[in-house]
Amino acid sequence: MATSSQQRICIGPKVPTHADNPITMLLPCPSSGLPARYVIQDGGLYEMQMVDSEGLRSWFVGDTIQSDGALYLITPFDPVFMLIPILDTMRQKTADAEGRFLMLEGIFGSCSDQYPSLRHLADLKNIDKYLALVCDVRDSKSASMRTFRLDDEKVMEWLKKKVDVFVSKFETIPALVDSIAYTESLPEACRSEAITQSALKLISANLSDSWATKLSANYQFPELDKLESRTQLPNMSDYGKRSGMDLDDEPKAKEVKKPKMSVGQRKLAKASTAGMKPMTSFFAKKT
């Protein structure tokens, strides 16, 4: 039996048989800025997470042994979450100016050597529509001359709609169902706020600290606050572990706790960063 070092065991969405080969790449995680693995397949963006990679494990694949015993999960990832920090940096907003408008090639064309794969985001299907969701757009006679600039109000409107979608579909989202299990015996008002709060945390897990704080400022949870002032809620650490959210401690007002890093992110974080530039330098104008 031969040993293979090229194959990987992945679980992901079914793709058309005519689709091009996937592009696997390292991109800055929208929430932490750390390197994370993503895939572009058939014009869509996917997040790759490595599961259960620690320890001595292997896979039997046909007549070969795959020495990498990790399991890779590939799930759809909304490109807008990836675009927000890039656009935020690229517009170069100041206290005196709203920032600059950029063409599509200008947004993704100023990539550093550390993340050259960022240029592939320009090839995502419907990339113009994704940009228009959170940007002011200036049209011209030529479609190639259309320019974009991140708009804070549009970003916030889009994020709040995301929270609303999660709330409306919470029964179909296991992470949300687990996170509100402690509310079964509570009044409906408390349960409703708990659902919204959990949806807010799931969305905030894909945002930087600054954007998560801005989003959190739009929500109030008076019934949960009253409940906390009267009694001690059950320990939520078990639900947090299963859902991927840190629910053990309630966040302070207008403050959202950072999500824990995945196994893959922890390994990448331990890698040597000597000579690496900060994320803001990836998009600096070259001279």
TrEMBL record:
Non catalytic subunit of RNase H2, an endonuclease that specifically degrades the RNA of RNA:DNA hybrids. Participates in DNA replication, possibly by mediating the removal of lagging-strand Okazaki fragment RNA primers during DNA replication. Mediates the excision of single ribonucleotides from DNA:RNA duplexes. Gene3D superfamilies: 1.10.20.120, 2.20.25.530. Residues 24-78 form the Rnh202 triple barrel domain. It comes from the Eukaryota. It is found in: Nucleus. This is Ribonuclease H2 subunit B. Residues 239-258 have a biased composition (Basic and acidic residues). The keyword Nucleus applies. Its main location: nucleus. One of its GO terms (cellular component) is ribonuclease H2 complex. Residues 232-273 are annotated as: Disordered. Pfam families: RNase_H2-Ydr279, Ydr279_N. InterPro entries: RNase_H2_suB, RNase_H2_suB_wHTH, Rnh202_N. Residues 81-176 form the Ribonuclease H2 subunit B wHTH domain. The keyword Nucleus applies. The gene is RNASEH2B. Keywords: Nucleus. One of its GO terms (biological process) is RNA catabolic process.
